[in-house]
Design brief:
Layout: E1 2-4, H1 6-36, H2 44-68, E2 70-72, E3 88-93, E4 98-105, E5 116-118, H3 122-127, E6 135-140, E7 143-153
Parallel strand pairs: 1-2, 4-5
Antiparallel strand pairs: 3-4, 3-7, 6-7
Length: 154
Amino acid sequence: MEYMSQEGYDKLVAELHQLESVELPQVREAIAEARDKGDLSENFEYHAAKREQGRLLGRIRFKQRVLANARVIDMSRLNSDSVQLLSRVEMTNLNNQSRMTYTIASPHEANLREGKISIKSPIAQALLHKKVGDIVEVRVPAGMLKLRIENIQL
């Protein structure tokens, strides 16, 4: 079971719809056009379109499985006493006094550009169930991070 926000669920549904209703018909059309050109054994366009179709079908099946196992979290039932999924955590890196803010998200919603880190990442795992003022040490590829939780929001 995968827990996620309503926003993440809606985004996955939209991506799946795009794949099924726009991209897959385009690939099927490309296969039909390439097939009309004759000998399939030496037809590069046909083989490329078939590979693309296989890739697309794999992505569609993956997204269908994720959605089948997805559970949307009711935000009204969450509290901001401790860090949990969908918490927005403001913290200070005690090694260099820099401040950072991340939202703990499901692996399918994680996007560092948007400030969303996966709940399965080392930093999120170390932050889970901690409270404001707690100091957390995390081993990351760059070494040890020492973080102090400044604020938790939903």
